[in-house]
Amino acid sequence: MQTNAVFALVAGIHSITTVSEVSVKAGSSISIPCLYGLQYISHVKYLCKGFYWHSCSYIVKTNQQNSGRFSISDDNTRRIFTVTINDLADEDTDYWCAVEINGGADVKEYFHLSVTGDTPHLYVDHQEITRLNGDNLTINCYYTNTGETKWCRLGISCVTRSSGSIDGTKVTISEGAHSVFNVTMSGLRTESSGWYWCAKGDLKMPVHVTVTETPTTTTIGTRHLTTLSPTPNHILEDGQQSAYTDPKSLIISLSLLISIVMVALLIWFMLRRHKQTKAESSATTTVRYMD
């Protein structure tokens, strides 16, 4: 394991790890991840606002409902709680990620938001990215400041050269167009899911990556039904045929029935006429014989 990864893990036991300096645009939103030690899983986490710790004010806690522009969520599996601030204002600058310690001093870590009315000095296209297992992912990090270029996983390790790896995932960093560097993560795995950040100088921009399993295709056998019409609506959801009858078929059947009735009536009328004629002929013959 790399030295900085060991240091991060050891430091995470007794403190909180987060991004220290983030450039944001007024009116937008930002999510900040805060990594904490294993012993704090069941503790209450919260966001505190203010430059000085002793005078900062509670904003939102994990044991309370989210309200207003602020929200907080806790991922006990990865030991990261995330705070989100919406509709950023000029005064949204100084905050603390904190963990409540019953009977002792709370554990905390400061982060600063540099709010600007123009384009942020370091930003990405999307803070939330989802990919499938085995995919490659490229993140564009746009910057206007100077300093060292990095791609890091929160609490694990960083890549500072053109290529390297983080937790078994290959990482390539290349300079793109003017004032942008591209980070490519190859062969993503579900274990690659988590919080990362790109850095330029003192600025950092967190990015959350979610890697999901590739969906499998399942073929389900279906029964072939004979219906009066190929319209799909004639088949019920449980695979049974409905009592629906096609109007065209109904008209044809009715026409056929009328034709049969008319032919039957015609035959009956002809037979009746024939019997009547025969009876009349017999009566005439009898009269003549009597005469």
UniProtKB/TrEMBL annotation:
Organism from which the protein derives: Sander lucioperca (Pike-perch)
Protein's name according to its UniProt entry: Immunoglobulin domain-containing protein
Alphabetical UniProt keywords: Membrane, Transmembrane, Transmembrane helix
SUPFAM superfamilies: Immunoglobulin
Residues spanning the membrane: 250-271
One Gene Ontology MF term: transmembrane signaling receptor activity
Location within or outside the cell: Membrane
PANTHER family recorded: CMRF35-LIKE MOLECULE 3-RELATED, POLYMERIC-IMMUNOGLOBULIN RECEPTOR
Presence of the UniProt keyword Transmembrane in the record: yes
